[in-house]
Amino acid sequence: MKGLRRALSFLTRLPVPSETLTSVELARAIAWFPAAGLVIGGFVAGVFWVTAQGLSPTLSASLAVLTGAAMTGGFHEDGLGDTFDALGGGWSRDEMLSIMKDSRQGTFGVLAIVGTVLVRVTALAALPVNVGVWTLLLAHSLARGAVVGVMVVSAPVATSGLGASYARELHRPTAVVSSLLAAGAAVVVWGVNGLLVVGVLVIVVAVFMIWVHGKIGGYTGDILGAAEQFGEMTILAMAVFMVGQGWELVRWLPVV
């Protein structure tokens, strides 16, 4: 469980014991990102379920999404904003990377953050409470599994520094297993229809990364954060689609 604790320490503001990690130790913790997503999703789903007992769907969905952002300190949202500021506002690769390192948010970044919050809130508000609870658990785990998958198949922009060292030290077989287990969670929640969720998620993240590679030639930490946000949005949107088609959660899941 040391890997899970380290992943939670890196990804969240939860009061877990922190430590100074070597690149090897952090690289090993990366495989625990989907498990950390389950913990985060559990808190978010709990807030959604409790507030949905007496508040409107939109308000309970808003509080749940904001809980997730608060738990991570806006970690992924910040990455999304920096990514779109850079890719939308830079003309050259070097200019894009320079903008990405700027902590200030520009118009493209603000629009991206507002957009992802709106999509997640409206999608979650459209779901029945029971479906929303299980989908939140899946979204937070599988979206981080997608991030692990990106790190397996892609390469960092920089050839030196922490990001490059994490990529070098990443144990790819373990990371692949971690991503596959996260994908399996979709089947646990939606049955065979979960394979469609995984397929659409892979397509969305792949298209995003192809665009990114065309712009700067690899990933950065900010781009991984953006990929996580695309993952959450995709899974929640797919849940709305499946509910609209009359598709149900697997029957043995408890009703909450």
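[next item in queue]
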Amino acid sequence: MNKPYYKNLRAVIFLYLISHISVAIGLTADEVVYETTQEVLKQLEIDKDRLKTEKKYIKVIVRELIMPHMDFDTMSALALGDNWEILNDGTQACLRLGFKNLLVERYAHILLSYRGHDIYYQTAKPIGEKDYVSVRQTLDRSETDPSTIEYRMHPDGDSWKVADLLIDDISLIKNYRTMFHKEIKQQGLVVFINSFKECSP
């Protein structure tokens, strides 16, 4: 065996092992939800004084720690339904950004309502036929009924991305799809698109 071939073979084996190691050390869906939640709660504690005087700072935490785990391509397409496919790439991009900003607002509201509740986690459960799983959190609120957040996730490389959120069993994506469909039907697709500041001329 000549040396160049041997070196190339070693390189291929090395890359093969590295690629499989990276998959092996990738977090499970349960771990993504747990680790992200713990990181967010830690940051809320660190910044608690700042958040008292600077309410909008919560959005910075959401953008930096939570949004990277969201699949906005899938979420935007599901929310727009059949209308998504007829849009050009530029319009899809600005609507995707607009939808992301809506979710930042929604998630910021969720975090602001958190009051040190105990959080319980259920093991990820397979749903559907596309490798999707559901990871459910329960927030034990002593002053009222428990609240739940369910993350519907799919594999993305060696990690997992959220494609829908169910808050107390109500789908965020379905809610937005119903609202968007109503607005498009009433005012037309062009006016609907321009209603997003991210897409306005």
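[queue empty]
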